[in-house]
Every structure is written in structure tokens, then in C-alpha cells.
């Protein structure tokens, strides 16, 4: 993958940056804005969760120690629904225990402050490569429909098929975990994080609408124990 192509992809990637030091956040945000047109900077984990849930974030960069707590638990919560989104951790700490815990969370990099721009650029490049390596740029389903993961666009026979926000979220969850059999209750919890009760019928309604667009055979219900996404062979 050539440098120019990586830069073009990065330019349209949505980056979530979490840092509670205002001056440091502003400086790093300026550097990030030179690489991407979509940088969202926040100062606390609560705001980060809200931004992540309301936006199609491609890359996360987070300080490990935030005033409201460590970002380790935030990263763990992201990993429950998204195994592959590139995450870069930044810290002034060289705490071995925290470092070892962070490494278990499939990070792109663990950058020690002060951040060197070359190291940050290399980590962003690795993030773009990771997106492609995990097949999260464009996938094709058995009915010929193609889904651009980053733009959240589904196209079949050169026609743009409209996806609701819940259909996008369900499709993304299945893609993130496409090698894992996901029970319906788990999928409901991921789709409706703040709802205490959601009926099976509500879930199946979204599932069936999505199946009509990507092909019924693309979402397989295996022995009534869970759902598994199937892509076009070789994709």
C-alpha cells in the first residue's frame, strides 16, 4: 500500500482523541488535523463514549490517565463490540503493570509523552493498514451488495441502498465479530446499550430488513444458537 493512498484514506478517517490537558490536546489536535479532516477531541471518558456511540469512528487515540479515571475500562468496553478498531494509547507513565494490561487490548501503539510527530504519523499509518488487513474498508456479500465500512454505504447494482442507524450498527457489530457466533441476547445488548428490555421481535425486524438488503444467506442463524455473518467467498 503506497504512502499517497494511505494519506488519502487517513484524510477522510474519523479520529476520536481523548486528552484532559487542554493545552496538550490543542497542540496534538492541530497535528492530527493536518492528517485528517475529521478529528473529534474530547476531555473526558463520558464524552468519549457519547461521541463513539453517535459517530462512525475509525481510529481512537487516548491518554491512559484521565482525571475521571483510567481509559483502560473505556478501551475494554470498546473491545467488547469492536475487536479491530485501531486504538493508540498515549501516556507519560511507564508503569509496567498498566502497560501490560493495555497491551492485552490489541493496541496499534503505546506512545510515551512527549509525543514525537514521526511516531504519531507511523502509528496512524499502522492504523490505516490495520483497517485494510481486517477487511474493514469494503466487503462484498453473497448477493453482490458491497458495503463501504468507513463511509457506511451499501451499494448493489450501482444503486445506493439506504441503511437505518440500527441496521448500520448491527452490520458493523457482525463485521467486527464475523468469526464469532453471536447469540441474539448479546446482539440486542450491543444494539440497545441503554435499554433495560428489548423484545425479540424488535431485533428480528431489524435483522430481517438488513437481510433483504445484503441477502438472507449472508446472516446465518446456526442451530438457533447465534448469528454469523457470511461474506462472498474469497472476500
For this entry, give a set of tags.
single chain, Rossmann fold, 2 domains, five-stranded parallel beta sheet, four-stranded antiparallel beta sheet, 9 helices
Mean pLDDT metric: 88
Helices and strands, in order, run as HEHEHEEEHEHEHEEEEHHHEE
Say which CATH homologous superfamily of the largest domain is assigned: Response regulator
Q: Which of globular, elongated, flat, extended, rod-shaped describes the shape?
A: globular
Total number of distinct structural domains: 2
Strand order of the largest sheet: 2-1-3-6-7
N- and C-termini, Cα separation: 18 Å
Q: In CATH's first tier, which class of the largest domain applies?
A: Alpha Beta
The oligomerization state is single chain
Structural class: alpha/beta
Largest sheet: 5 strands, parallel
Low-confidence stretches: none
CATH architecture of the largest domain: 3-Layer(aba) Sandwich
- Quote the CATH topology of the largest domain: Rossmann fold
What helical percentage do the residues reach?
40-55%
Q: How many β-strand runs?
A: 13
Radius of gyration computed on alpha carbons: 19 Å
Number of helices: 9
Percentage beta strand: 15-25%
Amino acid at each position: 500500500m503506497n504512502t499517497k493512498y494511505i494519506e488519502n484514506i487517513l484524510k477522510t478517517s474519523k479520529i476520536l482523541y481523548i486528552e484532559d490537558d487542554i493545552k496538550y490536546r490543542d497542540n496534538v489536535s492541530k497535528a492530527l488535523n493536518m492528517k485528517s479532516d475529521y478529528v473529534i477531541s474530547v476531555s473526558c471518558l463520558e464524552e468519549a463514549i457519547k461521541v463513539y456511540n453517535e459517530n462512525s469512528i475509525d481510529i481512537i487515540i487516548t491518554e491512559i490517565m484521565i482525571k475521571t479515571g483510567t481509559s483502560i475500562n473505556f478501551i475494554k468496553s470498546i473491545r467488547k463490540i469492536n475487536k479491530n478498531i485501531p486504538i493508540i494509547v498515549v501516556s507519560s507513565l511507564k508503569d509496567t503493570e498498566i502497560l501490560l494490561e493495555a497491551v492485552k487490548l490489541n493496541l496499534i501503539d503505546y506512545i510515551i509523552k512527549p509525543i514525537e510527530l514521526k511516531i504519531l504519523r507511523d502509528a496512524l499509518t499502522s492504523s490505516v493498514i490495520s483497517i485494510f488487513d481486517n477487511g474493514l474498508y469494503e466487503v462484498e456479500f453473497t448477493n453482490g451488495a458491497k458495503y463501504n465500512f468507513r463511509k457506511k454505504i451499501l451499494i448493489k447494482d450501482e444503486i445506493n441502498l439506504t441503511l437505518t442507524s440500527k441496521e448500520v450498527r448491527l452490520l458493523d457489530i457482525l463485521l467486527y465479530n464475523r468469526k464469532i457466533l453471536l447469540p441474539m441476547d448479546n446482539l440486542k445488548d450491543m444494539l440497545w446499550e441503554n435499554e433495560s428490555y428489548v423484545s425479540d421481535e424488535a431485533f428480528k425486524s431489524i435483522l430481517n430488513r438488513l437481510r433483504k438488503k445484503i441477502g438472507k444467506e449472508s446472516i446465518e442463524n446456526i442451530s438457533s444458537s447465534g448469528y454469523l455473518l457470511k461474506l462472498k467467498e474469497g472476500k
